[in-house]
Amino acid sequence: MIEQMIEIQRSSCNPLITPRDVTPSYPDWEVLGVFNAGVARYQDEIILLLRVAERPRQTDPQHVLVPVLNLDCRDGDSVESVMKTISIDKSDADLDLSDPRVIRDCSGNTLYLTSISHLRVARSRDGQRFVIDEKPSILPEGELESWGIEDPRITQMGDRYHITYSAISERGVAVGWITTEDFSTFTREGLILAPTNKDAAIFPEAIGGKYYMLHRPVPEGIGKPEIWIAESPDLRHWGNHRFLMGLREGHWDDTRMGAGCVPIKTEEGWLLLYHGADQSQRYCMGAALLSLEEPDRVIARMEGPLIVPEAEYETSGFFHSVIFACGAIVSGDQVIMYYGASDDSVASVSVSLPQVMDALNHSKTKG
Q1: The organism sits in which domain of life (predicted)?
Q2: Is the pLDDT of residue 109 over 80?
Q3: Which helix (H) or strand (E) holds 355?
């Protein structure tokens, strides 16, 4: 296959950032994972907006200590008051603790997450060695983020950066929107998509006078977790939602999929690096090409995955065999993608842009 000719070079520094590199938000907490980072260029630096998943240290073998946002916290309270801990009895027969990420009831309903995520800035001049902020940059806030904020994607438009992210609570997973101009101060713009939705990525420019966003609804009962597209006149009000790209039975992306990186503009179309999972829950990254003038039209899609979990840090970890990217930059003729490896750490890989485009063009000619 022509796709096998694409040059893929994992960084020799991988994994770039691991849990031990991140200072916990509280002295008695531990960082479980740092992954799924949004990516941007700011001045002469590469910015990663890290998803940091943490929890209280588990000191009681009979209970699971679960972190949630303290909704009774008020302005002026101590930092320690922002979170609270719930103790879950492991011997409770009505609970399902088989998945280390969640606590469910016997009917499969999620009751709690076992960690809570916030967003934290890391900075680098060479794109490989990062200095990580000592404290959270963006903490969960309010009832609809009481279980955390996750998986940011960063779109630059002029001097302003638009961050979409997953807002998690017992009400479901919604899409939030935050803006910044300096990655030091952040403005919350509110929720722009109601539950259940995630994997939202805004295109980096208006097209035909409209803004476009990819997103991934999570249907219950009818439908599948596939990629949709929406449009907006102002980045706040989104409508004209329609289906964009779906699962492929028997392929690497036959179980779930979603937008990975913010779409990259090329002369031939919008390059979309997206994630997909198969029946064994292996997450890979693939590539598709969308029309420049009609971004709701897929003009090419690679048959096989672009990158699969192979390195040790991708095949072992908190949730093994996962490559999940939220952002990439273009440097010369290389696409440098930053990705979460096994829901545990951050790594990077360089891919030849001309070769990816050649593979997509080959897929286009095959129809």
Answers
A1: Bacteria
A2: yes
A3: helix 353-365
Positive or negative, the CA dihedral 241, 246, 252, 254 is positive
pLDDT digits (tens, 9 = 90+) for 301-322: 999 999 999 999 999 988 899 9
Instruction: In whole angstroms, give the CA distance from residue 42 to residue 39.
Output: 10
Which structure tokens are listed for 278?
A: 């198969």
Count Cβ atoms below 10 Å from residue 162 Cβ, excluding itself.
Answer: 21
- The region, left, alpha or beta by phi > 0 then psi within -120 to 50, assigned to residue 234 is alpha
pLDDT tens digits, residue range 57-85?
A: 999 999 999 999 998 876 655 555 689 99
Q: Give 255-277 pLDDT, tens digit per residue.
A: 999 999 999 999 999 999 999 99
**How many Cβ atoms sit within 10 Å of the Cβ of residue 58?**
11
Q: What are phi and psi of 21, to 5 degrees?
A: -85, -10
CA-CA distance, 55 to 60, in Å (whole number)?
14
Place of tokens 């279980």: 147
Residue 361 in 3-state DSSP?
Answer: helix
Residue entry with tokens 């930092």? 79
Rounded CA-CA distance 203/351 in Å is: 21
What span, in angstroms and rounded, lies between the C-alpha atoms of 222 and 225? 10
Lowest mean pLDDT among 75-79, 98-102, 134-138: 75-79
| Per-residue buried b or exposed e for 214-234, using 16+ beta carbons within 10 Å of the residue's own CB | bbbbbeeeeeebbbbbbbbee
- What is the pLDDT at residue 122? 98
In this structure, are residues 325 and 308 in contact, taking their beta carbons and an 8 Å threshold? no
Q: What is the pLDDT of residue 5?
A: 79
For CA atoms 142, 241, 51, 172, the dihedral sign is positive
